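Can't paste images in this forum, so I'm doing it all in text. The chain is below; anyone willing to post the predicted structure tokens underneath?
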Amino acid sequence: MYPMKKEEKEKDLVKQQFTRQAGAYTKGLFSDLKLLKKIVELSGVTQKDRVLDVACGGGFLALEFAKTAESVIGIDITPKMIESAELLKTGAGITNIKFRILDAGDIPYQIDSFDIVVCRFAFHHFPAPEKVLDEMARVSKRDVMLIDGISPEDDEQSRYLNEIEKIRDKSHVRLYKKSELKTMMKNAGLNPVKMTHLPVDQYLDEWIDRADPPEADRKVVEEMMSRGLKDDLCGLDVRFENGRIKFTYDTLTILARKGSSLQKV
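Text version of the structure:
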């Protein structure tokens, strides 16, 4: 049984945040063509594959998949993000892609409807991540691909990082450890066959700007991250570069398969 009242409240926070900051989430890291191409390459997508992009945001990854796949559907709970994705699609002139306003925890497609189901940089926003993974596995005939930042395995570092994230962005739920994601995958009947670490460097000021928190929260985040310059409190290699604070996210890409033997990855 999922705690629906809490879940719905957190979904509203996500919609509010991504409606307010839709523009910020359609550039930079999210539209990085090199990273997009790498993810599509790791997926092994072919011209015969049908792809579902869950929590597709501005549609950048869906569009990149559509350059190879037979067809792509991108879904997102936030209408403003789907609006941005539609504009991107129109500008690119790509026709084998559709976007829908849908909830990742209640995907209205039949079992085995897609060859690849992917979710990028959204898993830490889901109030019921296991439910979303169950849905992704249900509608996938073959592969599920998850791309997100991960927290350190150390409990204290993980706690500290997630505390910072929640202050910066109230819609944040949790960045998970690699070990936790592997367990969730297994529980959803998915067997990881490939894991790839893609480090992502970010400047602190730009990272905070993207979420646009109140000034008081911004100062708390800056102060908490600054502590990491001396002690590795959040496991992000916080450092000074070009007179600014910079850090590195450990972004993990997991390609998991239904019905295959569990591989040691």
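Strands lie at 50-54, 71-76, 97-101, 114-120, 140-149, 190-203, 239-241, 244-258. Confidence is low (pLDDT under 50) at residues 261-265.
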